[in-house]
Amino acid sequence: MMKFAGIFWHKPLIRSKKQEGVLFTVPMILSAAVLALLVLCCIFAPIISPYSPTEQNLADSLALPSFRHLLGADRVGRDLLTRLFYGGRTTLLSAVGVVALSVVIGVPLGLISGYYGGLADTIIGRICDVVLSFPSLLLAFVLVAGFGRGMFSAVVALGIVYVPMLTRLVRSLTLVEKNKTYVEAATSIGYSDSRIMFRHILPNCVSTISVQITLDLAYAILDMASLSFLGLGVQPPTADWGAMLDEGRNFLLQNPFLALAPGIAIIITVVSLNICSDGLHQYFEPVQRKLPSFKKVEKRKAKETAA
Amino acid sequence: MIKFIAKRILQLILILFAASVIIFCMVRITPSDPVASMTQGRRITPETRAALEKEYYLDRSLPEQYVIWITNALQGDLGDSFSHRQSVNSLIAGRLPTTIQLVLMSAVLALVIAIPVGIISAVKMNSITDRLLSIFTLIFVASPVFLTAIILMLVFALHLQWFPSFGSGGSWMENFRYLVLPSLALGLNMVALISRITRSNMIEQLNSNYAMTALAKGIPYWKVVLKHCLKNAVIPVITVASIQIGSMIVGAVLVENVFALGGLGDVLIEGVKAADYPVVQGIVLMMVVVFLLINLLVDIAYAAIDPRIRLE
């Protein structure tokens, strides 16, 4: 897992003296707008498009882009753009499902592990070690082999795979938070452990967790697409970006859009999510170690020696 | 140092044991009929069924099956495939060379592309070139490996016809031509990560005192960058690259699928689809072992270089 902290400018839209901690920067707004547009297209797919995502129309088989079919049609004459929107529904929803599952399992485990320490921490830590000993998608393959093919088992499999990273993150955050005064105060009032963990410590970790979740969403989209592409995730005729790529690659010479369009949709979504995650990161933790560039140092040194 | 290595090897064995239990149980988590996977749905007499179950130890209890599997695996025998009428060992042996060659070629390609990109971004830090290179590499991370593979195939195999679009050659020398596009697809995915690390390490080295001293002595700029700083910056880069081999093994599965290379990945995916337990178990176990061994070697190498790590 990697983060692209600091690639983009993230300059604030409205210049103010206070440069730190601005959420609405140019890349953030652009990427958020792209994501919003995508989600809206997916939600309102039945209204935007006159076609059905599954109904076949063999007269239009492998039609090239035209006014009738803006991006062309696939082998059985289904409109590609329509399927792209419906596929977005499946892909985005399943990615959200993966992340939601990993949050529901990972966050409490991390809180318990960090807050109680001791035996609970050791056991949870070892389990995470074992899960992390698999390269991520490999464990998903094993789980899919066990659960059987299909979207649901792919979501569950990936959800489990994503747990340990989140657990470790929440654990390390909890370790810092639990020694702060407000936790001590809450303990002295006599609040229960679960109340302190979920009502007091968790809200203070939300900012960092949200950065990770945005990033995980991007990876979930990629991994779900990989599973569907291999025929282990979403099964045809359901539209899904990964499964559509799998179908489209057989017709690269007839109509390359069949494979490229869902692929580009994946890239755009993942890049936008990456930028959002990066922006959130800089918003929540604006202090970053910035080294001056080599040339600048040279110039500064030259100035100093001249003076 | 010996104590450190012994401790790490013990940890590895424990994790491997747990991983093998997980693999064994997860594959069997939902009840399905392995005999159906062997006979591919043909009707068989109860006697044949009993004989098949006996041959594959399916009549034993699960813990017994696990013990049989793991003791054989420790002796280097991964059992027999349900759907292919051959042993998992021979299945792996036939396919492994292609996969290894693919992963190694992509690792080399990734380094060859990423290190210069990282150096340029570091030297031109925060300039337009730096940003453009970052965005360019980010696109390859955001693009699923199989999409990069398909685009490369479309352009270089189908339209320009420079390289074959699928299959693999007989010997490993012949294989080179077949593996250029697949390993490029897999390598490009790794470029971003490696170049980012090269960049940050190079920036640190370029700002160090020894680089200043070298410059002050009148050594040309490019020589300081390429000879002095690169040497120090490249060690952590190699480490990260070798840890990435784990995700490259998985990426190889996807790329092999696109180019129909007939590598290990194809057998694994077929096995997953057909609920062919011995194949899935065997290949996954082998990949996990390779992944963990590489991590162990990296750790040991690091501890050898930096004694502080041993005390942790």
Strand content of chain B: under 5%
Instruction: Give the SSE order of chain A as H and E letters.
Output: HHHHHHHHHHH
The proportion of residues forming helix of chain A, as a percent range, comes to 55-70%
Number of strands of chain B: 0
Morphology of chain B: globular
Number of strands of chain A: 0
Note the main sheet of chain A: none
> Rounded to an integer, what's the Rg of chain A over CA atoms?
24 Å
Radius of gyration of chain B: 24 Å
Distance between the termini of chain B: 12 Å
In short:
By secondary structure, chain A is mainly alpha-helical. Chain A is built from 11 helices and no strands.
SSE layout:
The complex is a heterodimer of chains A (307) and B (312).
Chain A: H1 26-43, H2 45-48, H3 80-116, H4 118-132, H5 136-147, H6 151-177, H7 181-189, H8 193-229, H9 241-248, H10 257-284, H11 294-306
Chain B: H1 2-27, H2 34-39, H3 46-55, H4 62-74, H5 88-123, H6 128-142, H7 145-159, H8 172-206, H9 209-216, H10 221-243, H11 245-259, H12 264-273, H13 277-305
Write a concise keyword list for the protein shown above.
heterodimer; A: 307 residues; mainly alpha; 11 helices; 0% strand; B: 312 residues; 13 helices
Give a written overview of the molecule.
The complex is a heterodimer of chains A (307) and B (312). By secondary structure, chain A is mainly α. Chain A is built from 11 helices and no strands. Chain A has helices at 26-43, 45-48, 80-116, 118-132, 136-147, 151-177, 181-189, 193-229, 241-248, 257-284, 294-306. The two termini of chain A are 47 Å apart. The model of chain A is unreliable at 1-7 and 12-19 (pLDDT under 50). With 312 residues, chain B is an all-alpha fold. Helices cover 77% and strands 0% of the residues of chain B. The mean pLDDT of chain B is 82. Classes of the chains: A mainly alpha (307), B mainly alpha (312). At the A-B interface, helix 4, helix 5, helix 8, helix 10 and helix 11 of A face helix 1, helix 6, helix 7, helix 8 and helix 11 of B.
